[in-house]
Design goal:
The chain has 411 residues and is an alpha+beta fold. Strands 9, 12, 15, 16, 17, 18 and 19 form a seven-stranded mixed beta sheet that branches. The longest helix is centred in the last third of the chain and has 17 residues. GO terms for molecular function: acetyltransferase activity; lipoic acid binding. Its cofactor is (R)-lipoate. This is Dihydrolipoamide acetyltransferase component of pyruvate dehydrogenase complex.
Length: 411
């Protein structure tokens, strides 16, 4: 006699209470093996593949793609053959490798997904890449109507884009004057998290100070260091030096590495500097952090920045690096922007913004020279720092960027 198991959405990491179901990689009637990927979900932190804890046949898909699902919610029902080993309790919390079990939650009434006629026979599902399935779902296009150009006839995202263009061309018609075009929400889990974080950020009284600095010596230092073997394959940019200067300056300005304790109504100095790097990607903005950044050399810091930014843009950042940050640096200069006024990452006392480095006329000893100049902005929590403290800290960061000897003495 076969046994049915309901797979619950696992606890996917610290502070994550829900996830968006991006797509199913199996269909009703499919046979699944142990650890076979059942679905792809998107949390506020990353994209995660959910492996099956059971061997059997998919009987029900309990959640629609695009839905936001609380941790502990049943998402799929798998019927297991009688001769297969099974857990003693099919309703026990699901555990994803590397994460803990979900906390107990009250039972929920759930709806059953009725498969569309095109996908009822899962063995006949049109092969497609995950990005193609997502694009087709968001556009409301049936994959069975698209001819795939990928491997073994798989539909690709480009195929979906072509189909969309053809559909738009054939259906295009003038809209009545004054009509409003409505669009579907496009926020990913990460963008929703960013939105929540920015709202939470505004609860802190924030102020900003600005300083335009001559960073010519730093640019010259970069030019000398980049060809060295130690930095081969690593990201050595103005951001790297600014990050090093920021971390170094904290050693003499410990109040910067502080968070506000609401319960105590006071500031608490953090023991280590966990440096957050704001990274923009197609999925949104994330701020992975480098643990114990104050202990790293410039080479080690450059390696950490490189690894974290690559992982963040790919959506595979480890949850460990997405929590526990103490200060943040953001580089709007890569977008050609002179500067900005960043909002604090919730719970942190400061965020440093680096603007673009550009050649400008600069007065040195009453003579005008062409120098590499950048604008630095420091946004701070006014409960923790006053204007003088923030200004002195920002000035010290700028001094290190303007004086290679001062910065090199801390490398």
């Amino acid at each position: 006699m076969s046994t049915g198991h309901e797979f619950l959405l696992p606890d996917l990491g610290e502070g994550l209470t829900s996830a968006d179901l991006v797509e199913w990689t199996v269909g009703i009637g499919d046979k699944v093996e142990l650890n076979q990927v059942l679905a792809q979900v998107e949390t506020a932190k990353a994209l995660v593949e959910l492996p099956s804890p059971y061997v059997g046949v998919v009987r029900e898909l309990l959640v629609e793609p695009g839905s936001t699902v609380p941790v502990g919610t049943p998402i799929i029902r798998i019927e297991e053959p009688a001769d297969s080993p099974s857990p003693s309790d099919s309703q026990s919390p699901s555990v994803l490798v590397g994460y803990g079990p979900a906390a107990e939650r009250p039972s929920r009434r759930r709806s059953r997904i009725t498969p569309h006629s095109q996908s009822a026979a899962s063995t006949e599902r049109r092969p497609a890449t995950p990005s193609a399935r997502r694009a087709a779902r968001e556009a409301g296009i049936d994959l069975s109507e698209i001819t795939g150009s990928g491997f073994d006839g798989a539909v690709t995202a480009a195929d979906v884009a072509d189909a969309l263009r053809l559909k738009a061309a054939s259906n295009e018609a003038p809209r009545p004057a004054g009509s409003v075009m409505q669009k579907q929400p496009v926020s990913s889990g990460m963008r929703k998290q960013m939105a929540s974080a920015m709202v939470a950020s505004t609860r802190a009284p924030q102020a900003s100070v600005f300083l335009t600095a001559d960073v010519t010596p730093s640019m010259e230092l970069l030019g000398r260091l980049r060809p060295s073997d130690a930095f081969t394959g690593l990201s050595l940019t103005p951001l790297t030096l600014a990050a090093k200067a920021l971390v170094t300056a904290i050693s003499s300005h410990p109040m910067v590495n502080t968070h506000w304790d609401e319960a105590r109504g006071d500031a608490v100095i953090d023991d280590h500097v966990n440096l957050g790097i704001a990274v923009a990607s197609e999925r949104g903005l994330s701020v992975p952090n480098i643990k114990n950044a104050e202990t790293l050399s410039l080479v080690q810091l450059a390696r950490a920045v490189t690894e974290l930014t690559v992982a963040a843009r790919a959506g595979v950042t480890d949850v460990h690096h997405l929590t526990g940050g103490t200060v943040t640096i953001t580089n709007v200069g890569v977008f050609g922007v002179d500067g900005g006024i960043p909002l604090l990452n919730p719970g942190e006392a400061v965020i440093l913004c680096l603007g673009t480095v550009s050649e400008r006329p600069w007065v040195i000893e009453r003579k005008i020279e062409v120098r590499s100049v950048a604008t630095l902005t420091l946004t701070f929590d006014h409960r923790i720092l006053d204007g003088e403290q923030a200004a002195r800290f920002l000035s010290f960061v700028a001094q290190m960027l303007a004086d290679p000897d001062l910065l090199l003495s801390h490398l």
